[in-house]
Amino acid sequence: MHDIGFIRDLALVMLVAGATTVLFQRLRLPVLPGYILAGVVIGPHTPGVLVADPRTIADISNLGVVLLMFTLGLEFSVRKLRQVGGSLLLVTVFEVGFMLWVGYQLGLLFGWGGRNALFLGAIMALSSTMVATRTLTENGLRQWPFARLVVGMLVAEDMLTIVLLTLLTAIAISGTVQTIAAFSLVGHLGLFVVAGMIVGLLLLPRLVDYVARLERDETLLVSTLGICFGASLLAAWLGFSVALGAFLAGAVVAEARSAPRVVHLVEPLRDMFAALFFVAIGLKIDPAQLAHHVWPAVLIALAVMIGKSVVCSAGMFFIGHDVRTSLRTGLCMAQIGEFSFVIATLGLTLGAVSDFIYPIAVAVALICMLASPYLLRSADLLAHVAARVVPRPLRLLLTSYSGWVENLRPVDENAVLAAMFRRLLWHIAINIALVVTLFVIGAYINAHNAAWFEHWGLSRDMRHSLIWACALFLSLPLLIAVYRKAEALGMLLAELGIRERFAGAYTQAIRQILAKLIPLTTLIVLAFLVSALGSAILPPRGVALSLVGACVLLAIVLWRGFVKVHARLQAALRETLDKPSPADHKQS
Amino acid sequence: MHDIGFIRDLALVMLVAGATTVLFQRLRLPVLPGYILAGVVIGPHTPGVLVADPRTIADISNLGVVLLMFTLGLEFSVRKLRQVGGSLLLVTVFEVGFMLWVGYQLGLLFGWGGRNALFLGAIMALSSTMVATRTLTENGLRQWPFARLVVGMLVAEDMLTIVLLTLLTAIAISGTVQTIAAFSLVGHLGLFVVAGMIVGLLLLPRLVDYVARLERDETLLVSTLGICFGASLLAAWLGFSVALGAFLAGAVVAEARSAPRVVHLVEPLRDMFAALFFVAIGLKIDPAQLAHHVWPAVLIALAVMIGKSVVCSAGMFFIGHDVRTSLRTGLCMAQIGEFSFVIATLGLTLGAVSDFIYPIAVAVALICMLASPYLLRSADLLAHVAARVVPRPLRLLLTSYSGWVENLRPVDENAVLAAMFRRLLWHIAINIALVVTLFVIGAYINAHNAAWFEHWGLSRDMRHSLIWACALFLSLPLLIAVYRKAEALGMLLAELGIRERFAGAYTQAIRQILAKLIPLTTLIVLAFLVSALGSAILPPRGVALSLVGACVLLAIVLWRGFVKVHARLQAALRETLDKPSPADHKQS
């Protein structure tokens, strides 16, 4: 068999990974840093070169990231994503922002220049989902209340990671990034995520359950992997990272009834490629270079551990958790891992960072990973010490703060109304996002398939008219839905906002005006939005006006039909999300 | 992320494989040919090039073969290998030899030249384990009595495959192969298999069970993969195929108590890489070239299907199975598959065969695979028709033949003695093989590490003396064991062979002479063998003689110790093999 090189390298890596996992497991040390160290030992920079082909290593790493993100997605279903509370999201955004800033300042302090400093910030900002969930599992804490908080923050960070990855790519390619370009990027990303999620939720769980009913593990596995890699391919093709596609595919497939079976089948693959991923990271490291940068690495590791744990703990306490829970959550988040490597690799391959950033990132991650179980175990001790050291008045103040936050939570009638209000706003936002997506797709088709249209003898104007009409027609059910939700919102606001004691006799009149005003405003905003979005594909004014007229007519005639179509799609989506939860599938 | 090419190709392959598996499963067609066809469709030779990197494809294929062979090994444990009866082995050898001859003749008939013809023979000779076991499983026949026969023949073929692969490599490299070289090759192979099996059986099942007790799926999986790839690496390093190493590792690990758990964990990997393996085969195919060779392919496919089913059925009937069972076994073996691709790839990469052999092999395999389920289903019909068509006298003859074969089986006392006899011979053979292995290893160390010895200031003679002494010393327990078994064999033979009615009064004397003669002869043969084997590392005569004298002295002094060591090793081996069978782990 020719080209034995790849298989020899792989065999060596698997052999070493196998030995490491047993050894570190036996010594009760975390296994992931063990993989990295094993990689360093057999790497091309160590005397007695064993693995030497950089291409193989890159291939392996990429595959590892895709499968890792897919299984992370499978763990964090869309349902769980929705359960991440707004306050938790806020703490995460603050924490990630703070660590970005700390990393940036540290980088400047070391005199590494702006771009290196920026990447260092990103490397320091993101906790390791793999390490944190493993630490929880290995210490038997997976079912504790604070573990839910940790998982929630990790999910929120995963979402932020994707934003960061996209922004950093743009910065690395263009040198700097304009605010508008950044917003456009984040906007596109948001559209991709929302549209991908909704279309995915409508199709994929049903598809997976259908395949699962064929009752063949092989078929289920291969088709699920097809979905995972297909989504990665789509994401890469649209200019996002393969990791994003795989993560979204996992989160969507997790809503299938047969998701536990899928998890069960994919886990061995994840474990194999995770081992390869971490060994491959070690392979890239030159120990000599590592020794050269040992002090910055130690400093940065301390900054990560102290910064993350303090900010996360404080944030948790701030949003109303007790001291012990806050400390545990914070200490569990105090490390960096796989995303840091992805970001460092990104920086290196795009030529945006200096060579020494990668080994430093690995060294910092190694230190944090090794410290991780001890940090978590020290939480109770810390809480105990804190209870003794903190002076009594401050402790009283903190306790009363907790009580006060507890009382802030909305209750009874107000809570129900607030929930309705929030749901209506969400529905409107999602429908508008879908309309925007339709027009963006239309513009994309217009820009990339001009030749194809000309082949069919369609002039530029006719092409524009056709695409615009299609986008508008497909948007109709969504637009009608937005109008109806806005109407409901108007009524709700009128009921809530205009109390009789203020408006007196005019109450009813003002309420009616408000109830009409809101959907009307929404319609006007939508009209502007559609014409702005369609600017690239806007047909000549006459055609556009007549098309709008036709659509309005169509909307009135087919109103009930469109409402029914939309209701059916929404019901299908809700059915997927609200069905009884599949048996809890924990990471083993 | 750079180098997105590999992941894109892989994503495309997985996507197509996923769609194919669902579609073919739904249409109730066998999935494996579906993978190949899907590969042809997305291959670089089809308009609308999708997958284009040949290196990626080769990498994927190699990984697929290793994991495939490992899981095949896991299915066919050493225990099952021992259960393959001598008669079944004989039928398989005859069948493979016959198909080799048919293929060779066909190749000459087509005017393809000797070497192409030889490879064609090898391609046609080996049934597909994947296809046959799948056909059995998919038709719910896995537990039927004839399925045991099929699995037995497949195991025997797998062993022959390894011999064929090694021989073909030698032929392809050297052009021709001398009889002596072939024997040397097969001898080396046999030594590797036997020594690998025994050392493996002593170490690996215990290691795997130890890891399994850590109760972490990830650790068990990664370390098992380490064993699998490690064995492949060792085999490749010694000049055998990676497939052989993986197969042996699987067969040995299958003896661990936790083998069912390992199977469960490795199955998803096998399924993923099997899909990749078969799609990758399709990728290499140019449909245009396929069309060019359609008639040879059809002819060869017919020859495979008719030849294999007729010869296997006849062989099965000949060793005493009824017509229906024989037909079913024969028809289940009537296809070629993964090994044919491995052989064709081998021929291509070594430059030993023409380009058109590979697509023909694939076309033949496709036809046979698609026909496979229908062939098996036709078995009962065929048996029915045969019962009607065959004239009555012939039928009577056949029935009486079956009865006669049934009566041939040894019974009662004779059977017990025969079993003892066979066991003693086996023990002697295995111990001699181990002695030979020790000396071969010694010669290998002598040939490859001369510089290292010189570094330590050892002259050539001293090096020889040292290695020879080590080999001899390590062989002592084995040699003593051989002597003791030979003694037992002598007594058994004396008891059995010299009956009182022939020898009369001399019976006891002749028996005693025979009982002493046999171990003595064995010792002399062993002495010759050791000095012949050690010829490369034989020290000067004086040293050699004194070493032998020292060893004889040592043997006499430490006789009981050596016997104990050997008994302990043998007990460990027997314990591994004879422990209660782990829960039956079938292919799902």
UniProtKB/TrEMBL annotation, chains A, B:
Where does it reside? Membrane
Transmembrane regions: 6-24, 31-51, 57-76, 88-112, 118-137, 149-173, 185-208, 220-253, 294-319, 331-350, 356-376, 424-445, 465-483, 517-537, 543-563
Task: Please identify the protein, giving its name as recorded.
Answer: Cation:proton antiporter
Name the PANTHER family on file.
Answer: SODIUM/HYDROGEN EXCHANGER FAMILY/TRKA DOMAIN PROTEIN, SODIUM_GLUTAMATE SYMPORTER
Query: What is stated as this protein's family in its record?
Result: Belongs to the monovalent cation:proton antiporter 2 (CPA2) transporter (TC 2.A.37) family.
Q: Does the keyword Transmembrane apply?
A: yes
Keywords of this entry: Antiport, Ion transport, Membrane, Transmembrane, Transmembrane helix, Transport
Pfam families linked: Na_H_Exchanger
- Decide whether keyword Cell wall biogenesis/degradation is in the record: no
Species of origin reads Dyella flava
